[in-house]
Amino acid sequence: MSKVKQIWLIGFMGLVSATGPLSMDMYLPGLPQMQHYFGSSASMLQLSITFCLVGLAVGQLFIGPLSDHIGRRIPLMVGFALYGLTSLACVFAPNIWIFILLRLIQGLAGSTGQVLSRAVARDMFEGKELTRFYAMLMAVNGVFPIISPIIGGILLPFVHWEGIFILLFVIGVLTVIGIFFTIPETLPTVSRRDEPILNSFKSMLKMFSHRRFVLIALVQGLIFGALFSYISASSFVFQNYFHMTVGQFSFLYAINGLGIILGNNLPGYLTDYISNQRILMGALVVGLFASVLMVVSLFVNPMAILVIIPLFIVIFCVGIVNTVATSMAMGIEGRENGGSASAVLGLLMNIIGALASPIAGVMGAHSYAPMAILIFGCELSGLSLFYLANRVRRVTN
Predict the structure, then answer these.
(1) CA-CA distances (angstroms) from residue 91 to 34, 97, 103, 153?
(2) Gene3D superfamilies, alphabetically (predicted)?
(3) What is the pLDDT of residues 219-252, one digit of tens each?
């Protein structure tokens, strides 16, 4: 593959994999405005994040095994077409319940991008090359948490929250066109499963018996739980509790997005010198330490800076864990199971994130304690499971 084609593939697949940030980060600055529009509570609006995450998780269970049979390209195009149409339908939601239902469908459609971007990479690369490609792919993906809230903050004064979902519709349509004209099929017919598709779902269920694979996937899922605790609560915590403006919040969110990019990139440079095991352990330990600082800040005078600094460290470590844990987990399974393995990763990430999102907003704008405590709990649990995964590795070897 030429350098130009590789750069295009990384950039475009970064967009394809960004359905999570696109679906949630862009409209975060508008949540207080939407709360007024729908006449709902903060926790109810956060359910729209939860249901989108549920859709992203459940959809991957079907798309992953299906793509192991029919290839990656057709499911990608169909998924993004539906994603665009559902985004447009959100504009016309008559009430909060219809909006939440549409967000569920949007998540189901958007799951194709998340699961198949990982599967495409697994089709094409192995070992250290796979880690490097994931590092670059996720670095591009990490741009979207930076620019999405900035775009949302810019659009809100002119087109209100509806304009954000119209933009998502346009992105969905353009992505379908880009896939059709520029992305080849990466899973050749000879590598596809030829048994009944029901057997693929059974094989995916068997992955849950692979203890090390499941433990690494759970580590990544728990760290994503910390991330989504931040995502779902941050707009209310910083705009309502710490009284930031939309512009200030968007800038802060962008800085944290930069932290994800830096974290995603770092393993690509370290993998020649440090094992993935050690990189992952280091990120988990540092993330846990930062979460402790955030909890401690609850017992002093409320100051935004005491939350902002440890939060940046946590988000930076999320980027590292995302790259390394994905590479390790996908490397455990064979290429013929790439879609199914990616589906299990996506399931655990999004289900844990979906559970964390409404809990983080349980106290609305009155405290950041739920967010801080949830992040600490996720970091501590992730590190504990990592040590258990190491014990399983030593026993099996």
Answers:
(1) 11, 13, 11, 17
(2) Multidrug resistance protein D
(3) 999 998 898 888 778 877 888 778 888 778 878 8
DSSP structure string for 140-169: HHHHHHHHHHHHHHHHHHHHHHHHHHHHHH
Helix ranges (DSSP H) in 71-126: 73-90, 96-124
Q: Could you tell me the two tokens for 393?
A: 């590795």
Q: Using CA atoms, how far apart are residues 321 and 262, in angstroms rounded to an integer?
A: 12
Looking at residue 362, the DSSP 8-state letter turns out to be T
Distance CA 51, CA 126 (A): 34
CATH fit for domain 3-182+197-396, picks 3.40.50.10860, 2.60.120.10, 1.20.1250.20, 3.40.50.261: 1.20.1250.20
- Tens of pLDDT, residue by residue over 318-353, are 989 988 888 888 777 655 566 777 778 877 887 787
Cα 250 to Cα 111: distance, rounded to the nearest angstrom: 25
Contact call for residues 232 and 358 (beta carbons, < 8 A): yes
Cα distance between residue 315 and residue 318, in whole Å:
5
Return d(Cα 68, Cα 380) in angstroms, integer.
35
> What are the extents of the domains in the chain?
3-182+197-396
The Cα–Cα gap between 245 and 43 comes to 21
Task: Name the most confidently modeled range: 36-50, 98-112, 183-197.
Answer: 98-112
